[in-house]
Amino acid sequence: MALPNKILPGFSATLYAQSGATPTPLTVANLSDETSVSAIAISDNQIPVEAIPAFGQDDASANFAVAGARQSDVIPTQSKPTSMTITAAWNPSSAALLQVRADAYNGTIDRTYVISATDGTNIVNYAFNGRVGEFHIDPAPTAETKCTFTIHARGNQYGWSNNT
Amino acid sequence: MASQNSPLVIAKAIQNQLSGIISPIKVYSNFNRNYATEQKFVTWHLRNVHQPVYTGIYQANKGIDRPTFQMSVFTTKMNDGLDIANTIIQSLHGYSGQFGGVDGFQISKADVTLLYHGYDDTTALHTVFMDCIIDIPT
To answer: Are B105 and B13 within 8 A, CB to CB?
Structure first.
């Protein structure tokens, strides 16, 4: 087994969060280590979110233009891992959502999150360390109550891995 | 993590609730022409039982149930039909609480729409059709 070698539907992605009120996030090296990451990607750690937004790395660049030169240049600069604003159906007793709420209240807790996508056999994981920066409850009466939160990934603290 | 309500439980609750609202007028699930000999009766059927499903490999990651049931009021006199429809609306529209008696379940809201009123030549009955959407916390 290796990386999934198929085009994956959006439904194939699951979000997990490291458990515990004051967790020790994975080291940068372990964020790319399948054994370390898969220990977090278990059913008890699932965050029941509606959909997983775009994740990965943002863009950042600097433009250079030199008088007299024919062409200018764009150089990548310090870009950050993408922040994720996520919506979940709100169950006030959900242990995962209570944990996210507590992280938002605290503001400085680093926690390892894992996004796993699978074709049914093979799994690819994107693991990152992040802090929760926003926690909203939206009780619009036309559907279930929505819980929205934003995870800001820490710079240089993410990694990719797959099952073997 | 939302569990899926059994359609049977929802159906029994609808039958019980409607029977309670308009008693002693008969309430039937679905329409059967044999019943058309009665002066007044109400039928209902259930549709759109659906919880939105969300991402990931776990089946329980779902939203809430918002099923709709349609009520059809049949009467030989138009006045009676609209009167029964009004009784249902006054009782159900905006209702929040236990739905379907002791064997039912809690609903957050019932939302009733009177769709249209008509007349059926073949059965010689006036009709009033209504929809009711119920929000069930799960």
So the answer is: yes
Find where tokens 């750690």 sit.
Answer: A45
Q: How confident is the model at residue A29 (pLDDT cuts 50, 70, 90)?
A: very high
Domain residue limits at A154: 10-54+82-162
- The answer to whether position A4 is within a domain reads no
Residue in B4, B5, B55 to test binding to A, most A beta-carbons within 10 Å? B55
Q: What is the CATH number of the domain that holds A141?
A: 2.30.110
User: Is residue B33's pLDDT more than 70?
Assistant: no
ipTM summary value: 0.85
pLDDT tens-digit map of A102-148: 999 999 999 999 999 999 899 999 999 999 999 999 999 888 999 99
**∠ at Cα A11 (A9, A13), nearest 5°?**
95
Residues 6+ away with beta carbon under 8 Å from B43:
B27, B28, B29, B30, B31, B35, B71, B72, B74
- Report which residue type is found at A159: G
Rounded mean pLDDT of chain B?
A: 92
B90-129 pLDDT, tens digit per residue, is: 999 999 999 999 989 999 999 999 999 999 898 889 999 9
Residue A50 inside a domain? The answer is yes
Q: How far is A76 from chain B (nearest CA, A)?
A: 33
State whether A144 and B57 contact (CB < 8 Å): no
Measured CA to CA, the distance from residue B111 to residue A127 in angstroms comes to: 44
The greatest distance separating any two alpha carbons of chain A, rounded to the nearest whole angstrom, comes to: 65
Question: Domain boundaries in chain B?
Answer: 7-62+73-135
Q: How far apart are CA A40 and CA A15, in angstroms?
A: 10
Overall number of domains in chain A? 1
Interface with chain B: mutation pick from A44, A50, A93, A113, highest number of B CBs within 10 Å: A50
